[in-house]
Amino acid sequence: MLLSPLALDLLVAALVGMAVGVEREWSGHTAGPDGRFAGARTFALLGAIGGFAGWFLRIDQPVLAAILAAAGATFPVVAYWSTMRRDGTTADGTTEVVAVLVVALGMASGLGHRTPAAAAAAITVVLLAEKSRVQNTLRRVDAHEMRAAIQFAVLALVILPVLPDAAYGPYDAFRPRQLWVVVLVFSALNFAGYIARRLIGETRGLGVTGLLGGLVSSTAVTLTFSRRSREEPQLALPLALGVVAACTVLVPRLFVIITMLRPELAVATIPVLLPALVAGVGVMAFVLWKERDTRPDTAEQTLADKPPTGAARGNGIGSNPLGLASSLQMAIAFQAVLFAIAWVQRNAGDTGVLASATLLGLTDMDALTVSMTRFANAPGNQRIAAAAIGVGMLANTALKSALVLTIGAPRYRIRAASGLAVLAVGSTIGLVLSWPR
């Protein structure tokens, strides 16, 4: 090797500091009346100080390490104090704070963690260089959006981890953590729809939201958009397009899962899944072609730039972009469906793999897909497993059609149900082509 591991650690420590120092000089923070204390060379030396402090810790010299680290961290503090004593100096301590961070990152590299140190330094440089863009983005975030982001962080990072990941209640159908994930999915869809609506307008925003939401749960998209169609009937077409997009993206998502878990089964599922994918893409292409001359007008752009009012607030899009109340209601309904399916499975029994796929496909295509990859472990079961996935997808489409017809507004029902019917025809063709004989 040209360089020993220790030499590489110390070199990365110095380069971490130099990268930050170069950005400080490039952005002009070292010149003028507000010029700060350090440029590329000083920052490189601070990184090296941190690197040697980490090395001293590795060779059991904690006193020397503490002295070096304290000296490196104290220097920016003293420099800031001296700078603030100058008349007319702007109170901005970014350079001094990042200097202390450079010492810490250099110390991490000196301890042998040069990859995390380099990654953290890269993120730091990006944050420093993109200061104006970050500030402009923050100015565009209103109080509703910031509050919703904080609430979602609490729901996902505080509440979710403490919920038990176990089964309770009749038929062990109540799983608190999985149910809370449903709440998070619905809330995330509401929030994503709100942001997309503001950024790119109604038709494009809802279509993109449905497409992305289908990567997580196409059933959740169908529930959310069907409910919203009653509160905002003028969005019937974009909401229906979002549902078709979510159900279409389900197909490649399942194929990716199968390919990762059982590549040989993926080959058997191609004739099952391909017709449905073609049908869904065809529906979306037809709608977009038909609406090709439609552009977001001034009124729509104005609507996209401010929180909606009236009925939209009932969906939590104005007062709460997460729509937390509606998300909880949908999770309760989802849990009721799980209890019902569990009762059917326990009392009626399964009449074979295909019958089980019909029941499981109603609510959880991912679970069905994973179980079929295990079932296809025997080569003779691959065609049955592929057909079971097709049956489950057809049952899942039937469930979404029922949701559309029972929850959606009249204009939305016609459009969404028609798109789902085309998808169902595609799934049926795939089953006919690949039915085990």
Structure, described:
The protein has 437 residues and is mostly helical. It has two domains: 5-138, no CATH class; 143-434, no CATH class. Helix content is 78%, strand content 0%. Helix 7 (143-162) runs antiparallel to helix 8, helix 11 (236-261) packs antiparallel against helix 12 (263-290) and helix 11 runs parallel beside helix 17. The longest helix is centred in the middle third of the chain and has 28 residues, at 263-290. It is elongated and about 80 Å long. It starts with a helix and ends with a helix. Mean pLDDT is 79; it is low at 295-318.
Which shape, going by the Cα principal axes?
elongated
Order of helices and strands: HHHHHHHHHHHHHHHHHHH
Task: Describe the largest sheet.
Answer: none
Mean pLDDT rating: 79
Helix content: over 70%
Q: Give the percentage of residues in beta strands.
A: under 5%
The tally of structural domains comes to 2
Structural class: mainly alpha
Short characterization:
It contains 19 helices and no strands. The chain has 437 residues and is mainly alpha-helical.
List keywords for this structure.
single chain, 437 residues, mainly alpha, 2 domains, 19 helices, 0% strand
Question: What are the SSEs and their pairings?
Answer:
Layout: H1 5-26, H2 40-58, H3 62-84, H4 94-110, H5 114-129, H6 131-140, H7 143-162, H8 176-200, H9 202-213, H10 218-231, H11 236-261, H12 263-290, H13 298-304, H14 311-314, H15 324-348, H16 353-361, H17 365-375, H18 382-407, H19 410-434
